[in-house]
């Protein structure tokens, strides 16, 4: 670990911002790490107990060391951000929250890394604010719609739903067992930390279930609008993704005019965790060239 890495922790980088954007009037939590002329925003997935830090803590140091400022946003309804019930598109709700945060932080243009729900939200933000995006990295998500090969909802999405309804250690382990390809990296400490995080905010759990009841399609299919996004985009997928099948990545590749796709073998839904070193090198190369 470098000297740069040792000076930041989740607690030391923790920040709050009040945003007012459209219908949203919320306090958002985010982590602010490093300094630099260019900023990389990271958007997490929708799993119970998720947060920016939990999703991306293996990916921050290389970016900060390379001179980027890194912002990890906790989306509305997750972690320390305010609760919310989404009756419409969660992708667009998160995009509005991100715009509100960027306005508060006076950031005109950012690169965005989005995982799963975060990738959906990145696409929604790019469609609404094309002038504010640099390069995009989308992993395990980005558009909705059915898979041509895998029954819907997928195995992983079913397990997420079960965990939201019954937040037990058993249901958490069931979900995490298909979350990654190699489960040996999933320690009891990681399970307990994740369980503590999700039980600390039962309002978030209840609101997610309520939102899904009000609108089962929280993440709309943007396939017909992908051609509008001209930004350079790196798509990253795990071949064994049991949450969002790999053919979704192929649809994104077909629709985004300036996209490239990298597929990791022996990898599930969490490419930035399972193949962190390779992922980090690839992201840095993509952002700097």
In N-to-C order, the SSE pattern is: HEEEHHEHEHEHHHHEHEHH
SS-based class: alpha/beta
Mean pLDDT: 95
The CATH architecture designation is 3-Layer(aba) Sandwich
| Strand proportion | 15-25%
Quote the distance from N terminus to C terminus: 26 Å
Give the quaternary arrangement of the chains: single chain
Q: How many strands?
A: 8
Which shape, going by the Cα principal axes?
globular
Could you name the CATH topology?
A: Rossmann fold
Largest sheet: 8 strands, mixed
Walk me through this protein's architecture:
This protein is an alpha/beta fold and 289 residues long. It has a single domain (3-288), classed as Alpha/Beta hydrolase fold, catalytic domain (Rossmann fold, 3-Layer(aba) Sandwich), CATH 3.40.50. 40% of the residues lie in helices and 19% in strands. The protein contains 12 helices and 8 strands. The chain has helices at residues 3-6, 52-56, 60-65, 90-104, 117-128, 155-165, 169-179, 188-199, 202-214, 246-255, 271-274, 276-288, and strands spanning 14-21, 24-33, 39-43, 69-74, 110-115, 133-139, 233-238, 259-264. Strand 1 (14-21) and strand 2 (24-33) form a beta hairpin. The longest helix is centred in the middle third of the chain and has 15 residues, at 90-104. It starts with a helix and ends with a helix. Its EC number is 3.7.1.14. The record marks 194 as: Catalytic role in ketonization of the dienol substrate (substrate destabilization). Catalyzes the cleavage of the C5-C6 bond of 2-hydroxy-6-oxononadienedioate and 2-hydroxy-6-oxononatrienedioate, a dienol ring fission product of the bacterial meta-cleavage pathway for degradation of phenylpropionic acid. It holds the Pfam family Abhydrolase_6.
């Amino acid at each position: 670990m470098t000297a740069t890495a040792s000076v930041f922790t989740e607690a030391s980088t923790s920040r709050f911002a009040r945003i007012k954007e459209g219908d949203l009037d919320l306090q958002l939590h985010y982590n602010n790490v490093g300094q630099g002329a260019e900023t990389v925003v990271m958007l997490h997935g929708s799993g119970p107990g998720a947060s920016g830090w939990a999703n991306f803590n293996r990916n921050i140091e290389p970016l900060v060391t390379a001179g980027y400022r890194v912002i990890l946003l906790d989306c509305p309804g997750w972690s320390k951000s305010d609760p919310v019930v989404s009756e419409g598109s969660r992708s667009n709700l998160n995009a509005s929250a991100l715009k509100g945060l960027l306005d508060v932080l006076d950031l005109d243009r950012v690169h965005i890394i989005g995982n799963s729900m975060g990738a959906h939200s990145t696409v929604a933000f790019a469609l609404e604010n094309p002038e504010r995006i640099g390069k995009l990295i989308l992993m395990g998500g980005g558009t909705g719609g059915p898979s041509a090969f895998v029954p819907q909802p997928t195995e992983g999405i079913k397990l997420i739903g079960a965990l939201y309804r019954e937040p037990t250690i058993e249901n958490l382990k069931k979900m995490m067992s298909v979350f990654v390809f190699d489960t040996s990296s999933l320690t009891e400490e990681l399970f307990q930390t994740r369980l503590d995080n999700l039980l600390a905010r039962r309002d978030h759990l209840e609101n997610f279930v309520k939102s899904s009841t009000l609108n089962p399609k929280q993440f709309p299919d943007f396939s017909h609008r992908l051609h509008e996004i001209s930004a350079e985009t790196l798509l990253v997928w795990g071949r064994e993704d049991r949450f969002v099948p790999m053919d979704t990545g192929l649809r994104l590749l077909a629709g985004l005019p300036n996209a490239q796709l990298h597929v990791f073998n022996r990898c599930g839904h969490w490419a930035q965790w399972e193949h962190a070193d390779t992922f980090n090198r690839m992201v840095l190369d993509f952002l700097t060239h």
